[in-house]
Design a protein that fits this description.
The complex is a heterodimer of chains A (116) and B (114). By secondary structure, chain A is an all-beta fold. Chain A contains no helices and 12 strands. The chains are: A mainly beta (116), B mainly beta (114).
């Protein structure tokens, strides 16, 4: 079945440091890939997405590129801020055969803490 | 109001109580989901409703009973829960016509079973 593997956390960085959170996936078809972010006490918010190979998703300074050859979708940001402290989830969505909905499979989440 | 709204935000219940979680979406989506988020565990998909019909039930105990009366509303009825059921319960919706559809999440209900 489909699966998503994220790098183990927690990740602790100083403000303005470079961020990379690794994500690799296993899927039978051609999934769409997502990064979600969860701030303390909140639900998940979509951060960015990519729907086909070589697509780059970007939002709020975060970027991730859909790499089919390495089955990866690593999240990067050039200069993190304290306000980026949150839990980050990598996910994929593959339309189940014969169904009318897309089913999300999540990684285990990576806790990011940014210090001033 | 737009997006996905869950009520209540917090709930404390005894093991013999019966309560319900409510989810409402104003996005015109045709699929709705219940997820369970426990500490130090991946997000667990519990139920999926597509076009108001339950299409997935991922081995969830019968003390959790979902209901989808229409495409905008989803409930999770709870009875005789156990302390290990304490978790954040997240509702989501999507327009599931293709594999590229992302899910939109509510803020969750923090459930504590005492």
């Amino acid at each position: 079945g489909d699966s998503v593997t994220q790098m183990e956390g927690p990740v602790t960085l100083s403000e303005e440091a470079f961020l990379t959170i690794n994500c690799t996936y296993t899927a039978t078809g051609y999934p769409s890939l997502f990064w979600y972010v969860q701030y303390p006490g909140e639900g998940l918010q979509l951060l960015l997405k990519a729907t086909k190979a070589d697509d780059k998703g970007s939002n709020k300074g975060f970027e991730a590129t859909y790499r089919k050859e390495t089955t990866s979708f690593h999240l990067e940001k050039g200069s993190v801020q304290v306000s980026d402290s949150a839990v980050y989830f990598c996910a994929l969505s593959e339309r189940a055969g014969g169904t009318s909905y897309g089913k999300l499979t999540f990684g285990q989440g990576t806790i990011l803490t940014v210090h001033p | 109001e737009t997006g996905v709204t869950q009520t209540p935000r917090h709930l404390v219940m005894g093991m013999t109580n019966k309560k319900s979680l409510k989810c409402e979406q104003h996005l015109g989506h045709n699929a709705m989901y219940w997820y369970k988020q426990s500490a130090k565990k991946p997000l667990e998909l519990m139920f999926v409703y597509s076009l108001e019909e339950r299409v997935e039930n991922n081995s969830v105990p019968s003390r959790f009973s979902p209901e989808c009366p229409n495409s905008s509303h989803l409930f999770l009825h709870l009875h005789t829960l156990q302390p290990e059921d304490s978790a954040l319960y997240l509702c989501a919706s999507s327009q599931g016509s293709s594999s590229g559809a992302e899910a939109f999440f509510g803020q969750g209900t923090r459930l504590t079973v005492v």
